[in-house]
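User: Last request for today: this protein with adenosine-5'-diphosphate, please.
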Amino acid sequence: MIHTSGEARQQDRLDWSRLPVYGSGMVKAVFPGSFDPPTFGHLNIIERARTIFERVLVVVAVNRDKSYLFDADERVAFMKELVAPWPNVEVHTCDTLIVEFARQHACRVLLRGVRSVQDFSFEFELSILNKGVGPEVETFFMPTDQKYFVLRSSAIKELASFGGDVSGMVPPVVAKALDRVKQAAR
Ligand code: ADP
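Assistant: Here's the final one, the structure of the complex with adenosine-5'-diphosphate:
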């Protein structure tokens, strides 16, 4: 075994020969996120991933320390409605480490969408952290479709709060909900 540093790397503790080898089309992927709210960018990643992986488990993050515009039930309801046409996509919630969730659901792939070099640098560091926790879970990066590279939930919420037109950025169900939030805040 070759070590690239004096310290044995966490993943070297794995006996790779004992892991199951899946044929193509038999791998499940976890796609975690806040989805606060879901955008066409998220849906594009899910739609592409579902043609590659046997199943895609969309995991809506529930972080008690984070404040969301839409609560977990609303985000799950959006996602369930949006992925309903795709039979191999499931929606879950998770309030533990995502690697733990992946393990519990026998998923070897953690899928992340990447919009920019900034995203990549953040996601790359996160993938190293996750690798330390669960070496058998591999992070796969999927570059955004160029149509969606500027879509960011936080920016969309801000735009919507000022009355901007977000109809090209989020599905109609989300656009309506953003509008309701804006009316309620008046
Ligand atoms: P964000 O607020 O950045 O949209 P999320 O936590 O909801 O954050 O994102 C979940 C995953 O979806 C992340 O991997 C993120 O990089 C990815 N993602 C978000 N928006 C897009 C987009 N427009 N294109 C591709 N991937 C995206």
